[in-house]
Amino acid sequence: MDVIKFLMKEGQMMKPGDIIEADLAEIIATEFGHTVNRVAESDVESGIFGVKDDPEHLVSRPPVVTIMGHVDHGKTSLLDAIRKTKVVSGEAGGITQHIGAYQVEQNGHLISFIDTPGHAAFTAMRARGAQATDIAVLVVAADDSVMPQTIESIHHAKAAGVPIVVAINKIDKPSADPAKVRSGLLQHEVFVESMGGEVLDVEVSAMKGTGLDKLLEAILLQAELLDLKADPTRTAEGVVIEAQLDKGRGPVATVLVQTGTLKVGDIVVTGDEWGRVRALIDDKGQQIKEAAPSMPVEILGMQGTPHAGDRFAVVENESKAREISEYRQRVAREKQVAKSAGQRGSLEQMMSQLQDTGLKEFPLLIKGDVQGSIEAIIGSLDKISTDEVRANIVHSGAGAITESDIALAAASNAAIIGFNVRANKQAREAAEREGIEIRYYNIIYDLVDDVKDAMSGLLSPERRETFIGNAEIREVFNITKVGKVAGCLVTEGEVERGAGVRLIRDGVVIHEGTLKTLKRFKDEVQKVISGQECGMAFERYEDMRQGDVIECFRVEHVARTL
């Protein structure tokens, strides 16, 4: 009642149950002799992450190693070989379950390995600012040398600022040529010791088991230089490596404890999920009571499934955990709404950034149909770079645009340029989710002009392209007087007459043009919708093959605004 009287004096007519503003509440509280401490919503998160370590309690911790490299160069077999020789023998049938991370012992020192499927998790962790890895082992096959994904791995490791140890694998093969690998790495600024550089390289054979001890010793040597330390006495913090919903056990998260000690019964928050640790399971499938820094473990007892790359921390009680996860869910929803309103990695956005911040780097990720055209594009972009603005090529490679490219672009805020290539469905969805712009070109001059205009802050009218649909060629018929006709099934969207069409083979554009015929059974039709079959023939083009994809699109020219 006193409060209402006070408000009436202030000329505010209020009844019990009315909501008052924070400023007014502060005035009232002060009037009644209370001291006020205003808190922001985001304060629920303060003091959980980045708790200071106590310098007196710091002890050295095992290094965390990620194995990277090109497909088929033997990443998995190398991990298996290391695990078999180093895993405590006497366990029935090796490791019982795949937890995506392992610890091995070498000369009394532990090493933790993260088995990242592809680089997706690695980049996701980086994009979310969680540095999980201390050392990257780059596996290169001695008979195959440096390949596109090897280069991609180097870019990922360098962007994350992680030192590389090179494992030259498959040296047991007669066609092995380690010298070729070393000189191949030189071109990508990875200087190995024998070439006068700093990077340690070891010749190994996962099949024969040779050189594995040397590799582990090289890792320990690199770890010694890094002088890795953690405080095991504080509350635990770390990062999620992978997580899945297990039928029998509910949500299971494989986490890497980075600092502090995680115990059974702790309440953890990760991403917008929380839970009480019901059980901790180590890489050998055994239940343990606590997990020390750099130790990979599975956590049972989460309320929901977190994402790979989310950071986790221990909080004091359930209500705190609930509060944080509710706050984060709300933030995530708001971000989603905001994201659909404004795109990030788009050329336009970058321009406004260039103008606002005087940002001199222009991050781009380039994918092309062949290496030659990529080199030509990079060469042309180098020529147009000035003292004020330069194009910074985050990554380039031949082939379709994949999810891994989107993740890398998101982590480095780059726009993606596709030259005669397309993004696959997963990549398109990921780009939409992340708000990354993908631009397609088929003429180098157009591409260079656009980037040049973007760099100088001017934009020519935009040729805006709307994706209408995709159809897959099931069979190709040869019809007299007509020529070749493709029998297709429309797999997404729809196909229209009069729209532009492209023929795509393995994510690379083979031909662009218009349709000569679009038939459904015997009749010419205006459009065919998803799930229906149709016959198509191109104007003046006949090299279609079974399994090719026909993409249908509409083009409009829009004057661009900033």
What characteristics describe this protein?
globular, single chain, alpha+beta, six-stranded antiparallel barrel, 33% strand, Elongation Factor Tu (Ef-tu), domain 3, six-stranded mixed β-sheet, 5 domains, 562 residues, Rossmann fold, 29 strands
Describe the protein in words:
The protein has 562 residues and is α+β, with helices and mostly antiparallel strands. It has 5 domains: 2-40, no CATH class; 57-229, P-loop containing nucleotide triphosphate hydrolases (Rossmann fold); 237-340, Translation factors (Elongation Factor Tu (Ef-tu), domain 3, Beta Barrel); 347-460, Translation initiation factor IF- 2, domain 3 (Rossmann fold, 3-Layer(aba) Sandwich); 465-558, Translation factors (Elongation Factor Tu (Ef-tu), domain 3, Beta Barrel). Helices cover 28% and strands 33% of the residues. It is built from 13 helices and 29 strands. The protein has a 6-stranded mixed β-sheet. A 6-stranded antiparallel barrel has the order 9-10-16-13-12-17. Helix 6 (178-186) links the parallel strand 6 and strand 7 (200-203). Helix 9 runs parallel beside helix 13, helix 10 packs parallel to helix 13 and helix 11 (403-412) packs parallel to helix 12. The model is unreliable at 88-97, 117-121 and 339-343 (pLDDT under 50).
Would you summarize the structure shown here?
By secondary structure, the chain is α+β, with helices and mostly antiparallel strands.
**Beta-strand proportion:** 25-35%
Percent of residues in helices comes to: 25-40%
**Spatial strand sequence of the major β-sheet:** 3-4-2-5-6-7
Number of strands: 29
Low-pLDDT residue spans: 88-97, 117-121, 339-343
CATH top level of the largest domain is: Alpha Beta
* Bulk shape: globular
Secondary structure tally, helices:
13
Averaged pLDDT: 77
**How would you characterize the largest beta sheet?**
6 strands, mixed
CATH superfamily of the largest domain: P-loop containing nucleotide triphosphate hydrolases
Q: What CATH architecture of the largest domain do you see?
A: 3-Layer(aba) Sandwich
CATH topology of the largest domain: Rossmann fold
How many distinct domains? 5
Our measurement of the CA-to-CA distance between the termini, rounded to an integer number of angstroms, reads 55 Å
Radius of gyration: 29 Å
The chain-level structural class is alpha+beta
